[in-house]
Design goal:
14 helices, single chain, mainly alpha, two-stranded antiparallel sheet, globular
């Protein structure tokens, strides 16, 4: 078992990370601020998928659909109903939860690759439904919907990009706090028990069907909030922005960050936001190939994800700290006692 860091060191690391996140908009360029904002957005979505796949054991290849539902819910409520962007966010979360819960009910009959195939079909169907001519008055069809860029409230000395960064950061930290509390409590233990030993969990009184469906709903809620935040940040939604590749990228983020790791979502989000730009800078003609090679190489180097590597490094430092500073202790040779003559 990995030895935890001492409390004062944990607080120091958290304080340093928060200070860096708060200072980032003042030391980074405008495009870098946008990229960091996107990392927070994708981190929320990866947490949502990880709650379902990493902690509950249900495989999903269709979370891009819930991302799209959250984004379009936000855009429709703002553009057609005149809600403020922050006021539409709870409704987008509720709609996403309802969609995930509704899909989770029939998905109870599916396991493993059958569930993955069903969710993959959902990812294929939702963008086509958004283009359907009967819904064009609401969704804008293939043209999509545009949103206005929100300005900083209360005359805060921030430009629009900086305000969106801080607004997204606050939402991200709040959702991570809630997810951490959820997983540390009885509900979290029930969720992981269903993943590890579903029969034993049911024999202990856990309502497996209810918890699986609720996990699907909460997972969709997180991913839908990420989609809504993406609509606010980009100020545009269109069906072609939510193809099946979005679902694949979210799954890649889960694996790179660490399956079953909450805070590895930041590592996975940074990968899916930054690495395509790195691959493009190496070769614009073979961006996909370079991206794939880098992904395969990371899977060999980091089989437990980026957070797993950090955990191993932390364990190694803990062992090194506990080791004697002057090397191994000398061997004690027992004294020989004279026997009876």
């Amino acid at each position: 078992m990995t030895a935890p860091l001492p409390p004062f060191q944990s607080r120091t690391l958290i304080t340093a990370a928060l200070a860096l996140a708060i200072l980032a908009p003042w030391i980074a360029s405008g495009f870098q601020v946008f990229q960091l904002t996107q990392i927070w957005v994708y981190a929320i979505a990866i947490v949502g998928l990880n709650l379902l796949t990493g902690f509950n054991g249900q495989i999903s290849l269709g979370h891009g659909a819930f991302y799209a539902i959250g984004a379009y819910s936000e855009a429709i409520l703002v553009s057609h109903f005149g809600l403020p962007y922050w006021g539409a966010l709870p409704f987008a979360a509720a709609i996403s939860f309802a969609a995930g819960f509704s899909f989770g009910l029939p998905a109870l009959k599916l396991e493993g690759h059958y569930l993955a195939l069903a969710t993959f079909a959902l990812a294929l169907a939702v963008p086509q439904l958004l283009k359907y001519e009967k819904f064009e008055d609401w969704t804008g069809g293939v043209q999509g919907l545009f949103l206005d860029k929100p300005e900083a409230p209360l005359h805060l000395p921030l430009d629009a990009d900086q305000w969106l960064y801080y607004f997204t950061l606050i939402i991200t930290l709040g959702l991570f706090y809630l997810a951490n509390n959820l997983l540390d409590g009885r509900v979290g233990r029930a969720i992981t028990a269903i993943r590890d030993q579903p029969v034993a969990a049911e024999s202990m009184g856990v309502d497996v069907a209810l918890f699986k469906t609720l996990t699907f709903g909460v997972s969709a809620l997180y991913t839908g909030v990420a989609g809504a935040m993406s609509a606010i940040v980009i100020q545009f939604v269109a069906p072609d922005s939510f193809t099946m590749f979005l679902s694949i990228y979210l799954l890649v983020g889960v694996v790179i960050g660490g399956v079953g790791s909450l805070y590895g979502a930041f590592i996975g989000a940074a990968f899916i936001v930054l690495i395509p730009d790195v691959a493009s800078s190496i070769s614009k003609a073979a961006t996909g190939a370079i991206y794939g090679i880098m992904l395969i190489a990371l899977m060999y180097v980091l089989p437990s994800g980026g957070w797993g590597l950090l955990e191993k490094a932390r364990a190694w430092l803990g062992r090194a700290r506990r080791a004697p500073a002057s090397g191994p202790a000398p061997i004690q040779v027992p004294e020989r006692r004279a026997g009876p003559r």
